[in-house]
Amino acid sequence: MQLLRAWNNDARQTPDDRYVAVCDGIRILAIFMVVWFHVWQQSWLYAGLELFGKRISLDPLVRSGYMHVDLMILISGFCLYLPYTRIAPSQPLPGILGFYKKRLVRIAPSYYLTIAIMLAVAIATDAYKSGYPTLQMDLITHLTFTQMFRMETYYFTHLNAALWTIALEMQLYLVFPFLARLMRRFPVLTTLVPLVACTYFRWILQHALWDITPYFNQFPAYLDVFVLGMFTAFLYGRMRSLPHNALTRILCSAGTVLAFICIIRLAFSQSSYGNAGVLQQGQVMHRLPMALAGAALLILAGNAGWLIRHVLGNPLTHFLSGISMHIYIWNQVLAVWLLQYRVVPSNFEHPNYEGDHVWQVRYTAVCAVVILIVAVVMTYGFERPVTRLLLGRKAQKQPDASAAKAAEPGEQKT
Questions:
Q1: Which of the ends of the chain has fewer CB neighbours closer than 10 A, N or C?
Q2: pTM attached to this predicted model
Q3: Rounded Cα distance, 235 and 230, in Å
Q4: Cα–Cα distance list, 414 to 80, 88, 138, 306, 410 (Å)
Q5: Residue 408 has pLDDT above 70, yes or no
Q6: What is the CA radius of gyration of the chain?
């Protein structure tokens, strides 16, 4: 009886819109899929499980893990705009220059440290001897967040290919303050215009170009996903005024499960595509459906029942979300290095291709441990201290209205 009363009281509570804890879990699930994909690229460990005597293949989920970057961009827009939903119409919005400063302080130090480390490794290993890309061009474009504008520095960089996402985020940050002001006055129109324009852009990529590699991850191909995240925050804020009861929680819980199923179904559909060029075509085609499913997941999970909210939002997911930017930045590089330098021994010359199952399992486990250790060290040994130094302890301790980390893959506080 007491348990039922407690559940009913929880169901009647208005969801917290200052910190949407389920964002932690959703972000971690998205990053976990990306990491799983990158480690699998090196290990070739078959993913599957046995349930009630039936073998279930998870291979399609692993092979399409890269597409969950789309969810990370969506969450970025959601978390950045959520604080704006609580500002009264008569009150001014935060200053544009202040927003830029805060974003730079959060991202630039870790980003440039990564470049410095990767540059030292590239020079030590003579990686630039081929001249493609040249050291000068690789360095200049990465320092200015413009590496995506050149194929050689975007696709063949020696300075960590994962940094393209950070560069994209910086480009989105440039327009966010202006989009926020438009979203406040014209939320539907501000969402629909980029959605239509970007959908048309992606349609052109699919039907007018043979090779879309230089374009399918550029700013115009992602702007609507980012704006949809902002609109999702707008809708989430509006749900404060709706009645919350047991029925609301049950319906949102069911909707959360359906949204998860849609995301899994899209991942399975993406995995059916073949070579790299076709994969990119599929990713472009699935981008908007993936973003819409993610938007539904954010809203519904945040208003779901106690169990779903605490599975996605708990101390563990909060901790992992806090270090997830560095998990994302370093996972692929570390997986490649661990394989290249044969940290995990094997009797086979190419244990991944030759199917050394024991090695595959050990290598995957070592990757997971090393990635987590590096992320913890980089977050608490560099990112947090530098942020406190640049923003000041007082600013660091002030509560910020964002849900889980704002924008860059993995950041937990705005």
A1: N
A2: 0.91
A3: 9
A4: 7, 20, 29, 26, 11
A5: no
A6: 22
